[in-house]
Amino acid sequence: MRTGKRLAGAVVAAGVSLLVVSACSGGGSSDSGKSVSTSFADCATKPNDCNGGTTKKGGTLTYTIEKTIDSWNLLDSDGNTVDYAQIVDGILPSVFNGMPDLNAAMNTDLVTSVEQTSASPQTIVYKINKDAVWDDGTPITADDFVYTWQTQNGKDCKDCNAASTSGFSQMKSVTGSDNGKTVTVVYDTPFTDWKQPFGPILPAHIAKQHGDLATSWKWFGATVPNYSAGAYKISDYKKDTSVTLVPNPRWYGKVKPSLDTLVYRIITDQAQAVPALQNNEVQAIYPQPSQDIVNQVKALAPNVQYTLGKGLNWEHIDLNLKNKFLADKTLRQAIFTAVNRQAIIDKTVGQFVPGLKPLNNRNFMPGQTGYKDTVTSAGVGNGDIEKAKKLLTDAGYKGVGTALTTPAGEPVAIRMSYSTGNTLRQQTSELFQSEMQQLGIKVTVVPVSLGKVLGSGDFDVIVYAWVGTPFPFAGGVQLWTSDGGSNYGNWVNPQADALYKQAASETDVKKAADTLNQADQMLSNDFYVLPLFQKPTFLAVYANYANIRDNATNIGPSYNSNEWGLRATAK
Amino acid sequence: MLAYVIRRVFMSIPILFGSTILVFLIVKFSGDPLEGLKLRNPPPPPQTILNEERRLRLDQPLWEQYWLWLKNLVLHGDFGPSVHSNMNIGNELGDRLLVTLRLVLVSVLIALIFAVITGVVSAVKQYSVTDYSFTFLGFLFLAMPSFWFAILLKSAGIAYNQATGTQTFFTIGDKSPFLVDDSAWGNIKDIAGHMVLPTIALGLISYAAWSRFQRAAMLEVLNSDYVRLARAKGLRSRQVLVRHALRTALIPLTTVTALDIAALLGGAVITERVFQWHGLGEFLLTSIAGRDAYAMMGWLLVSAIIVIIFNLIADLMYSVLDPRIRYE
């Protein structure tokens, strides 16, 4: 009888939810004033320790990733996704890890010291922890470093589809000594981001069992890892559905996992992550936030805690300097002066990320060592329409504010391109269009295939995103120098070129950061790329789990998965 | 009959051939499959991009890319390289077809049973409260966008779980990653818990359309002369309905069902996405997003073959249900 009543009650509850859910899911009420809940309140001041706590032994945590695993080799171009990186971090160690504060920290479980022992030639000496072993008992040695180098240096293995050769291609030699527990890397040319390589390393002794460099590299990509030198090892993989990890009994690190099982659940449609969280099928999610997702999670408080962070993805507006109108620096200055970045933020991501401010650097993110405002002094991005009009009038442009023509009398008309289907960029483009209308510039908003138009240069103005990194120096050369492969808008400034190259080949990181900022200031003054904002990240997790926190770097919140666990005391 | 089947199969080959060319060209002109790779930061080395271009045959002229695909498919059963280097398109399609089959066949079976029952009852009790109720429900389900209905069902399932303190219904996937109770009963409960919501979501939309078809067909038959004659001869009502009327009235539904099953097997796209079933529908979406030309052509082939088979089944079912039809 009682069961019957309970069941009837449940059915009624389910029925009622059918009627009310649509009203709620539209994004009705929200606690829009907060970007974090209680557990994450200290993340702004203590990003590396927030949501901490003592854990108790046992339990399972299911965490979502958004992409299926196409290759099991993280270092391969096909496997190099943020999603898979999160799993790998539990099984393959890196020498340095990207931390929540966006700086790189030495992995003291793997190495006891890493030092630059000489500036010329740049020499780095790694001392491997003597207890560090693979889960079959084989010690981690210089052989693993050598294999990782050879497969990614672009010379020894042409058929290894390395995701990046950055750093490795500049290494002259990688040698082992002290029974393989000391690794000495000598660079041909100095590499400022020397902390970047060897994240992670691959097991050379396993590779040896599977053929030459290229064959073993492909084997690593095609085979579910049955090896580990991390806190966990993979116990089960259900294709396109989940990867299950259990503690590695040979783990040599200081913090042993307290969880019995850690499951990475693949949910390819992020809109489905919140219902799964609500139904306790998963206990932690890390989707790209939208207003709907944020509001739905807020409704699950206090059982579920959340934090909106600032990611390393940053949106920007680029001008194509080969365009006949945009070749004129004054027009470029007027355009960037008229763009109101805060208004764009407020009308897009600002709807659910309170307090988000414009980004003022193209290489460093706020909080990262080296960050400095290199944009404001150029007087751009504040929506100063009157100043923009004056610039154009003074330069001899006609029809300012109505129908702009060049001093030679040609009407100014440009295209604003954004990636097809990207609502955020479409909104940004439309806001840009209305701002330009106030200057009299006719802007046509065009959805495009990003790779196609960037490669061919078939754009005038375009909005898209780059991904920042804790290792920004090498990227500067690629993105901004006149012969850099990703300088799609064709900015040419020989002085800046020299600075970018100098910054990438320094042995003094502070000096490199200053040099990079000088070059970035030049870029601001040439009005080529206007940074808009950092895209937000969003982590939601059940309150009874401790030590899970946002990490916007490429290894994601899983950077410390060995510390995750059920709270010893209820919060 | 056999000659008819063979003739139909051969007639479909040029259609298949033409459609693969069309899809190939559409995908090829829609963008660069290596766009994501090229836009990475830090960027991949040029050698990696070259290797990928070679592997995906992008360094060859369009006609040669297509010819190689066709040749390898016919001679070796090779569906061509996917954008994802470790994916074997043929195996992937096979795995996913099984997932979709499980979802579609169960939901179709349930929808069909309910559609026939309610269609017949509605027709027999035309303009009664029952008829109006079924009509209202039919149109309600027809009008409901399937993704919205799926989300409503999920919410209902979650509310039920929370109210009972159980984990009866699941909202993602077709099975749990691992089970605490790994007994046979535990597995059955787990699979059923994952199947209920997507099956209802997919089945109700089909049910709504089919019940209307069945009602209309049944009404037409019930008002025909031979049914009137059967009644006049004094046959029992049940005998008239089941043996004489229903058998004839099932013919239109047979056609519709066969065609709908074919379409659903091609990919219950929305249901699979909302409930995270990794079937053919999701495969199609992923292939489109990744501009994975050979994967899309593989999907097209499988879907087209399914459509051809089910069309054939529909035609053959005619001859079973209607003795007047004989294929030569």
Automatic annotation (TrEMBL), chain A:
Annotated Gene Ontology cellular component terms: ATP-binding cassette (ABC) transporter complex; periplasmic space
PROSITE patterns per UniProt: PROKAR_LIPOPROTEIN
Pfam families on file: SBP_bac_5 (PF00496)
One example of a Gene Ontology biological process annotation: peptide transport
Molecular functions per Gene Ontology: peptide transmembrane transporter activity
Keywords in alphabetical order: Signal
InterPro entries tied to this protein: Peptide/Ni-bd (IPR030678), SBP_5 (IPR039424), SBP_5_dom (IPR000914)
Signal peptide span: 1-25
The organism's place on the tree of life at top rank: Bacteria
Residues annotated as domain Solute-binding protein family: 108-487
Protein name from the UniProt record: Solute-binding protein family 5 domain-containing protein
Organism: Planosporangium flavigriseum
UniProtKB/TrEMBL annotation, chain B:
Topology with respect to the bilayer: Multi-pass membrane protein
SUPFAM superfamilies for the chain: MetI-like (SSF161098)
Database matches in InterPro entries: BPD_transp_1_N (IPR045621), MetI-like (IPR000515), MetI-like_sf (IPR035906)
One family name in Pfam for this protein: BPD_transp_1_N
Transmembrane segments: 9-27, 103-124, 136-160, 191-210, 245-270, 293-318
UniProt KW keywords: Cell membrane, Membrane, Transmembrane, Transmembrane helix, Transport
Localization, UniProt: Cell membrane
A Gene Ontology term for the protein's cellular component: plasma membrane
PROSITE patterns, sorted: ABC_TM1
Domain ABC transmembrane type-1 residue range list: 97-318
Principal subcellular localization: membrane
Family: Belongs to the binding-protein-dependent transport system permease family.
Name listed for the protein in its UniProt record: Peptide ABC transporter permease
Lineage: Bacteria, Bacillati, Actinomycetota, Actinomycetes, Micromonosporales
